Amino acid sequence: MTREAAVTVRVFTQRFSSTPRGARLARRLSLHQLDRWNVPYGSEVSDAVGLLVAELAANAVTHGRVPGRDFELVLTCAPGLRLRIDVSDTRGERRPASVAPGPLDEGGRGLLLVDALATRWSVIDRVPVGKTVRAELDLGGAGPDVP
């Protein structure tokens, strides 16, 4: 009989106003939460998560905004295994797509950044309404230590 080590999964969930200020706050609080989980500010994982949350939150407030509705951020961390970022909004009909922008386009590069930083990312239907954009980082032994 083989015994496997127990894994404590940590979860942080918060709703934010669908405004640029809400997107900035989502990024700041996600970095603060990672620091509480022993992923220090300025580490490779912290920097990657900060950029991913910033991009996904900015997309949620720019393209997924429905007046009067918030967006939601969920961070899920299985130490040493995987860190998952879920950003949900209530606009299900506008789905993100990674399309290469033209050289003179002022926008459209955000999902290229997500594609480069995340191990994988996807768009999932959110019940009863909306969508969730999920980005995952495989930690491969790095990441928070659980006491």
C-alpha geometry? globular
- The computed structural class is alpha+beta
Low-confidence stretches: none
Q: What is the alpha-carbon Rg in Å?
A: 16 Å
State the end-to-end CA separation: 26 Å
Order of helices and strands: EHHEEHEE
Strand content: 25-35%
Determine the fraction of residues in helical runs and give it as a percent range. Answer: 25-40%
The main sheet comes to: 5 strands, antiparallel
Q: What is the average per-residue confidence, as pLDDT, rounded to a whole number?
A: 86
Give the tags:
31% helix, alpha+beta, single chain
What do these coordinates show?
With 147 residues, the chain is an alpha+beta fold. 31% of the residues lie in helices and 25% in strands. It has helices at residues 20-36, 44-63, 110-117; strands spanning 10-16, 71-78, 82-89, 120-125, 131-138. The chain has a five-stranded antiparallel β-sheet, with helices on one face. A hairpin with a 3-residue loop joins strand 2 (71-78) and strand 3 (82-89). Helix 1 packs antiparallel against helix 2 (44-63).
SSE layout and pairing:
Elements: E1 10-16, H1 20-36, H2 44-63, E2 71-78, E3 82-89, H3 110-117, E4 120-125, E5 131-138
Antiparallel strand pairs: 1-2, 2-3, 3-5, 4-5
Helix pairs in contact: 1-2, 2-3
